[in-house]
Design goal:
The structure is a single chain. This protein is α+β, with helices and mostly antiparallel strands and 212 residues long. The longest helix has 18 residues. It starts with a strand and ends in a 14-residue tail after the last helix.
């Protein structure tokens, strides 16, 4: 039986971007399925006690920048550490991604187009016209995806993903969930790799309340 990783993330996430290629390489290495679960990080933070970046202590903000330098080097990436439109409202982009998934299409080209737009091209992924153009550039139907993103059905999936993240004790993006065990952050990919390699039983957290 193919194992599955539930992948909770938002297209606004710096760390989902930095870990994107490494995570997909890991999944391919182990032959595991990825269940993509774009979710609203604000609700996840609110439930678990996290803070949006601009509300964190200046020391924490400064340390984040140091970590971005380190991981940019570690992953061999080239991108703007101070992207012009970060942070942005990711709701439309996340929901367009859900629309891609609902069509049964490979989500990676759209994910990578949004990441590239934000971190390398200085574009605003909260702008509907930008997102439509990005989708068109990868031979997707941008207007149709943008329209689908506003439907009740897609918005319901977005809420469902968010509620599932909270119920599953995910506390940030990216959150990788294997057999109920949460691995938070792309800097935990080595531990996820170990768990997949060993086949050990999952380490589960206690005291989940499961309420959104």
């Amino acid at each position: 039986m193919t194992r599955r990783i539930d992948y909770y993330f938002t297209l606004q996430s710096t760390w989902a971007f930095i870990g994107h290629a490494a995570f997909h390489d890991l999944a391919a290495k182990h032959g595991v399925e990825i269940a993509y679960k774009p979710c609203w990080l604000g609700a996840v933070f609110k439930k678990s006690g996290g803070l949006p970046l601009k509300e964190r202590h200046p020391v924490r903000q400064a340390y984040r920048m140091v970590e971005m330098h380190r991981w940019r080097d570690k992953r061999g990436l080239d991108f703007d550490l101070e992207a012009a439109f970060f942070p942005f409202d990711p709701a439309l982009a996340d929901r367009m991604l859900i629309a891609v998934l609902e069509r049964g299409d490979d989500p990676r080209p759209f994910i990578e187009a949004v990441f590239d737009a934000l971190w390398r091209k200085g574009l605003n992924p909260a702008d509907r016209d930008v997102l439509i153009a990005l989708a068109n550039d990868i031979d997707a139907d941008g207007p149709a995806l943008a329209e689908a993103a506003e439907t009740d059905a897609i918005q319901a999936i977005y809420r469902s993903n968010t509620n599932a993240a909270i119920a599953g004790q995910v506390i940030g993006s990216p959150g990788y969930v294997l057999d109920g065990e949460v691995f938070w952050g792309q800097d935990r990919l080595d531990l996820l790799d170990d768990a997949l390699s060993s086949g050990r039983a999952p380490y589960l957290m206690a005291n989940a309340d499961g309420e959104a």
